[in-house]
Design a protein that fits this description.
- The structure holds two protein chains of two kinds.
- Chain A has twelve helices and no strands.
- Chain A is mostly helical.
- The relative contact order of chain A is 0.14.
- By secondary structure, chain B is mainly alpha-helical.
- Classes of the chains: A mainly alpha, B mainly alpha.
- The interface between A and B is large, with 89 and 96 residues.
């Protein structure tokens, strides 16, 4: 860095010959760049640790049985209460979204990998495009499609999350199906087993672990989504709502609503909520990686 | 097509197409039906957004939204068509500047992290480092926003105060770095976006660096190059279009990010703020903020116009990124 590079004929090509000074300068530069890259990695890890520890420190102040079992007080300025309704709402909404998106996502992946053809190629391309659609746009779509007819509801939130999970699951499943060796399909066909039967009983089972990993990562992503739910499930801070045809709260919505109030009491609840949400998402993510890792090591 | 197929090849072709028996045909129909449904999701998203945006587009004209940077729903009068009170240029600017700041920070860091993980760190560190960087992507957007308000903003204050008192005094471009800084700003949103897109850009860069041919790296070292010289001459030039593609895909993610940005940008909708340390709004943030309270004439419909533009921009950016990354992979293999 400090040492000026020796005049070289082609820009970017290091000067390989030269006196002792040039050589030691090049080694010094090499060491400096190695240290620099190491420092950047260290800063990146420090940011992760900073976020996790800050949320843990703030969240632990209020996280407890009260928080996990009670609903928020009617007035956000009051202390006490918790996000029980949001936690339950998150699991119901994401649960329904999973029930919708998993079969559809796997079926679409089967079409892409096992059948091919023009429709399947288009689906493969559109799946990639859908991953890039902003989640708030998906929320606006579900508002227009569903909420304008049936009103805000947990179910509308589930549909929005299902649409967000669908391309993630399709992509992960397709990737896993491509890894299943053709020998298995051929052996099954040679035994006189039909194609549909081969897919269901030979191809899918050998890709199960990988598919589960993909689904769990999609569930983790859906758990943390907030923006599309603002336009669909809307939130309901007053009481525990378990009927998905009604307005429902989720953990993410309650964190957002309580975080942006000016009240420290509400913010204390929001920090406990943020810690709860991070823990749920991290458990899902790490479990997914462990399952995925076992799947890949078993195959090779 | 060419030679008449023997009965067994014909049967095999039938099997492959999944039409050999009724159960196969039914299964094939269901699976391809779902594949068609996926196409409908994209078409439906576009169609429903256009349908909801249509009243405002018809009333004010499609391009009149791009004619101003003033969004003032309370000025909207049902009968008046001119001027359009729903200018959206400031949202486009906000989305562009926050994403740009995010990418300017995230791309160099991502390249450095990916280089370190694939080329410098010992092999046993590869997997742990990869996992840990990926964990940054697992933290929900709403948590980043909340953390941004209470932990990041206080940490940014001294840095920004330094920048406003130095760069802010330069004539002409000083306006871009001018104070005062109240915490929530384009810049704050850009820093949060940088952290959020870092894992995506890193993951693609890692993939690109990992496939540099070993013989080229060995050739560089055999010429007596140091490791850094080898990285600069054998690894980085080859990866240039891969890094470009990764950056475009990261950009696609950044410009759609909603909740975290909404929490730290200040949500000022009345004009473009010249300073990056000033408050503003982005296309997603105005939708999230005003959607459920849109009561003025054509207010909700105009928000759908914003959503439609956001969809168009996101699609263009993502498809471009996909094409660049795909071309890179073909180049390498």
């Amino acid at each position: 860095m400090a040492a000026a590079p020796p005049a070289s004929r082609t820009p970017g090509t290091p000067q390989l010959e030269g006196g002792d000074g040039a050589l030691s300068r090049r080694h010094a530069k090499d060491r400096a760049m190695t240290v620099l890259l190491g420092v950047v990695v260290a800063i990146t890890l420090a940011v992760l640790v900073w976020v996790l520890f800050y949320v843990a420190a703030q969240g632990l102040k209020y996280l407890g049985p009260t928080f996990l079992t009670q609903t928020p007080p009617g007035n956000p300025a009051l202390p006490g209460g918790g996000f029980a309704n949001g936690i339950v709402g998150s699991f119901i909404i994401v649960g329904i979204a999973t029930l919708i998106s998993v079969p559809l996502g796997i079926a679409a992946a089967i079409a892409v990998v096992e059948y091919g053809g023009r429709l399947a190629a288009a689906t493969s391309f559109v799946t990639d495009v859908l991953v890039g659609v902003p989640s708030i746009v998906t929320g606006a779509f579900v508002y227009a499609l569903w909420v304008t007819h049936f009103g805000y509801s947990g179910l509308a939130g589930s549909i929005a999350l299902a649409l967000i999970m669908l391309p993630l699951i399709t992509r992960a499943t397709a990737e896993m199906l491509r890894l299943v060796p053709d020998v298995l399909r051929e052996a099954s066909a040679a035994l006189g087993v039909s194609k549909s039967r081969t897919i269901v009983s030979v191809v899918l089972p050998s890709a199960t672990a990988g598919i589960i990993t993909g689904v769990m990562l999609a569930v983790a992503r859906a758990m943390g989504e907030t923006a599309p739910l603002l336009l669909t499930a809307l939130g309901n801070d007053l009481f525990m709502q378990t009927n998905p045809t009604q307005r429902m709260s989720t953990l993410s919505l309650q964190i957002f609503d309580n975080a942006i109030t000016g009240f420290q009491t509400a913010q204390a609840r929001a920090w406990a909520g943020a810690l709860t949400l991070i823990l749920i998402v991290l458990v899902l993510t790490i479990a997914a990686r462990l399952i995925g890792r076992r799947a890949t090591t078993a195959r090779s | 097509m060419t030679a008449p197929a023997s009965p067994s090849t014909a049967a095999m072709a039938e099997w492959l197409r999944g039409r050999a028996n009724p159960a196969d045909r039914a299964f094939r129909a269901v699976v391809l039906g779902v594949a068609g449904l996926v196409l409908l999701v994209l078409l439906g998203t576009a169609a429903f957004l256009v349908a909801q945006a249509w009243p405002a587009i018809q009333h004010y004209g499609f391009f009149s939204f791009l004619g101003s940077d003033r969004w003032a729903p309370s000025d909207a009068v049902a009968k008046s068509t001119h001027p359009n009170p729903y200018g959206i240029l400031q949202f486009m600017y906000g989305t562009a500047i926050t994403s740009l700041i995010g990418m300017l920070i995230a791309v160099p860091v991502a390249v450095a992290v990916a280089l370190f993980i694939t080329q410098i760190a010992p092999a046993w560190l590869y997997r742990p480092l990869t996992y840990v960087v990926d964990l940054l992507a697992a933290i929900p957007s709403v948590v980043y926003g909340f953390w941004g308000i209470f932990a990041l903003i206080p940490a940014l204050h001294p840095i920004v105060n330094f920048l406003t008192s130095t760069l802010g005094n330069i004539p002409v471009i000083g306006a871009v770095f001018a104070g005062p800084f109240f915490g929530v700003s384009y810049f704050t949103a850009g820093v949060v976006l940088a952290i959020m897109v870092l894992p995506i850009v890193t993951a693609i860069c890692r993939e690109v660096f990992a496939v540099t041919p070993v013989d080229e790296k060995e050739a560089a070292l055999a010429l007596g190059m140091t490791r850094w010289e080898m990285l600069r001459t054998a690894v980085l030039p080859r990866a240039r279009s891969g890094i470009t593609g990764a950056s475009i895909l990261g950009l696609g993610r950044a410009l759609g990010e909603t909740i975290a940005v909404t929490m730290v940008i200040g949500n000022s909708v009345l004009s473009i703020t010249a300073s990056i340390f000033g408050q503003g709004a982005t296309m997603p943030s105005v939708i999230a903020n005003e959607f459920t309270e849109a009561t003025e004439p054509f207010h909700l419909s105009s928000l759908f116009v914003v959503a439609l533009w956001l969809l168009i921009i996101a699609l263009v950016v993502n498809v471009a990124g996909k094409l660049v990354v795909r071309r890179t992979r073909e180049d390498i293999v």
